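Our consortium's second objective concerns turning raw sequence data into structural hypotheses that experimental partners can test. To show how far this objective has progressed, the report includes one record in full. It was chosen at random from the queue rather than selected for favorable results. The single chain below, 254 residues long, was entered without modification.
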Amino acid sequence: MNYSKKIFCQPLLWVIALFLISSGCQPKTEEQATAENRETDTESKLEPLTTENVVEVLTSYEKEHADSLVLISTRHGDIKLRLYSETPLHRANFVRLTKAGFYDQGEFYRVVKGFAVQGGDSDTRTMKNGAYKIPQEFNPKYIHKRGALAMARYGDERNPEKESSSHNFYIVQGEPKTVQELRAFEAKHNMKYTPQQIKLYTTIGGEPSLDQEYTVFGEVIEGMDVVDKISEEQVDGQNWPHTIVPHKIKTINQ
């Protein structure tokens, strides 16, 4: 599969700490992506969004769709997630893509055992959602604990405001951290963890290196064992599974 065509990169720390330099993740310009979208708009159930209208459309959509529970189905089983109301643009975007069937053409395409699994994209997708990014919605309440759901984004040079990808998401695995490590991340990110957050990071684990870098907008409430199974997939040198892991996503009753 030719993942060099992907628009959005994996989380930046993957590039630096785990992939070093990934030649397979070269972002396209918005102009290139928009041109490709025009060619296939007739195949899409979605009205493609743009940088200019994304906030207006998602704000309006969020008022009409208060869905907060979603189910990701894979060949390894189901993952149930709760989306946060305090990140309304990200929640609305995820629900909008889900209801349109966009994520039913996606897969978990990048896997780093002990770190995270990333999904949302596929080279075989025919639906297009437009060339846009989502304004970041950082919230100190929501950290990259084990089971956190967050959106990937462009790297810093191309995206100083740390806006999120339109569709690529990841679920955190992570490992337990020491209090000393957490203090270092507090200083780096100019933040302060609560006692409860410190307990989470030192017991169940997570990836504090990503806090205040990527928007966390939900969490796994059932099915972390499925995330762990996905993380066991055999991968190539760029952490792409040898056997694809397709996913289907739907909203479920509250």
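The partners drew two points from this record. The two ends are 37 Å apart (CA to CA). The domain at 3-251 is CATH 2.40.100.10 (Cyclophilin). Both points have been shared with the crystallography group to help prioritize constructs.
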